[in-house]
Inverse folding.
């Protein structure tokens, strides 16, 4: 419980910090710290479902302060969490480079996910959005450049944020885990120090 | 049965949360199309908590930026002074000519009377936060419904339009910038009165889509609001045409417009304490009883016969057209 509250507080603090930081580093050069916390939860959090619920809460909190549709960041953060959690369980992510590459790829996917959900939910539906090439047009060369820039910045900050999540997990979760006596959904401990 | 529930509990929660986020988007889209409703308590609470903390974080950043900007400004103050003095002399001369023309045609008294009737109160507000994702262009202001700010209020600076308030809590307001993909403003070229829609491109530029393909527009033309969209008053500066795209293969002509306001350097803005007629109608019809009491400056909507054709883009920025309001 302590670790859950600590990670939740970290996610909310990241949300507030990045809003202020964006005044100095205009997007896309400002890292999405709250999203990195979600990725950190996916990679380091032992409980699959509790991590999923945490990601949903942080996603909806992001929607509350962002100009997005309510649920847009939440959905994409849940998908980010799922991919990160599955990657942590299936791949060998020991070392900084695999984690950085995963963060970069996930961040790119997040950007395209935003464009796609916007086209589908604010445009005229999925079929129309795909058929008219609206998504490709909305992304464009400049859109790709923006997505790559933010993915790069997120990648640079990933180590620090995921490290803090990891520290919280190690600090609070060990005693909770030993009390519970196991990890959810076949968690093997790979990707976790 | 308990075993089955235990086994399916995890996947059920996953599917349920994914569904909740998708349904939220569908409902929120409908809310945007309907003109908006008051924020749910939990969203308002997050805004209330976030805004003051973001203000604390951004205060030192603004301080450093301010010192740097002051220094840079000082470097060019002498040359600026000479240039501005020349410009002032030119404008005074032009102004005299316009006044003369207005007096001759008898318009001056009517213009003065109209201006008195349509004076709009302005509330200064500070920007405390920016949307960190480059896909949405919105800002967070430190003024909310307790200060009389309502969704639909235009936000401006002395240079021109910044955007429109989309949601408020007691002490904070989310504002969609002109640059956002969902933003669309009914506009005219100041010189030729060629009309069209200025849309946000999600980048640092705006796209002016003309209604007529062979519109009279040249690079350097100023673009202002037409007042017909029903959100912004007439005559507010949007920006300057920086490029005209070939119309080949397109039904309409498109010009690239550089925003008049440097939206990347914003610190203080002014909230116009009166909604345009379209927003007034939308929010008035959606607001619960007792929530209609806005600031004293809020005007009643104009008669419907003044309304023009609907120009609502998806996601609803400038919705159907309304009556024009004179500039503040």
């Amino acid at each position: 419980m302590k670790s859950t509250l600590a990670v939740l507080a970290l996610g909310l603090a990241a949300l507030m910090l990045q809003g202020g930081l964006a005044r100095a580093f205009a997007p896309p050069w400002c890292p999405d710290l709250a999203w990195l916390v979600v990725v950190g939860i996916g990679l380091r959090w032992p409980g699959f479902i509790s991590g999923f619920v945490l990601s949903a809460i942080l996603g909806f909190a992001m929607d509350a302060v962002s100009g997005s549709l309510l649920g847009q960041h939440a959905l994409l953060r849940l998908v980010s969490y799922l991919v990160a959690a599955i990657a942590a369980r299936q791949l060998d992510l020991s070392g900084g480079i695999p984690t950085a590459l995963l963060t970069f790829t996930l961040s790119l996917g997040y950007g395209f996910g935003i464009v796609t959900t916007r086209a589908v939910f604010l445009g005229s539906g999925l079929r129309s959005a795909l058929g008219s090439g609206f998504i490709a047009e909305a992304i464009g060369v400049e859109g790709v450049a923006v997505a790559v820039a933010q993915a790069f910045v997120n990648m640079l900050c990933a180590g620090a944020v995921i490290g803090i999540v990891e520290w919280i997990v190690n600090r609070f979760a060990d005693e909770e885990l030993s009390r519970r006596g196991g990890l959810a959904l076949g968690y093997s401990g790979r990707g976790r120090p | 049965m308990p075993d089955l529930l235990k086994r399916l509990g995890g996947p059920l929660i996953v599917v349920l949360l994914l569904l909740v986020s998708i349904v939220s988007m569908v409902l929120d889209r409908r809310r945007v199309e309907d003109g908006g409703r008051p924020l749910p308590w939990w969203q308002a609470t997050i805004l209330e908590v976030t805004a003051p903390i973001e203000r604390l974080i951004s205060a030192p950043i603004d301080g450093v930026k301010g010192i740097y900007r002051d220094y840079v400004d000082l470097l060019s103050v002498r040359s600026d002074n000479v240039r501005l003095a020349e410009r002032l002399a030119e404008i005074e001369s032009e102004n005299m000519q316009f006044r003369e023309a207005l007096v001759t045609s008898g318009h001056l008294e009517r213009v003065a009377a109209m201006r008195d009737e349509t004076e709009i109160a302005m509330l200064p507000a500070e920007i405390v936060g920016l949307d960190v994702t480059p896909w949405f262009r919105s800002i967070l202001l430190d003024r909310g419904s307790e200060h009389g700010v309502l969704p639909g209020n235009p936000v401006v600076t002395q240079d021109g339009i910044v955007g429109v308030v989309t949601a408020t809590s007691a002490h904070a307001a989310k504002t969609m910038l002109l640059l956002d993909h969902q933003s669309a403003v009914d506009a005219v070229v100041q010189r030729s009165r060629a009309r069209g829609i200025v849309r946000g491109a999600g980048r640092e530029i705006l796209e002016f889509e003309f209604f007529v393909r062979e519109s009279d527009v040249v690079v350097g033309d100023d673009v202002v609001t037409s007042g017909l969209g029903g959100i912004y008053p007439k005559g507010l500066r949007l920006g300057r045409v920086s490029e005209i795209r070939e119309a080949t293969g397109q039904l309409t002509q498109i010009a690239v417009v550089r925003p008049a306001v440097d939206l990347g350097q914003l610190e203080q803005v002014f909230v116009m304490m009166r909604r345009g007629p379209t927003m007034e109608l939308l929010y008035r019809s959606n607001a619960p009883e007792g929530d209609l009491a806005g600031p004293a400056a809020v005007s009643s909507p104009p008669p419907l016969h003044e309304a023009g054709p609907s120009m609502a883009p998806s996601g609803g920025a400038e919705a159907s057209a309304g009556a024009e309001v004179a500039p503040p």
Notes: Residues 182-193 of chain A have pLDDT under 50 and may be disordered. Chain A has seven helices and no strands. Residues 134-180 of chain A form the longest helix (47 residues).
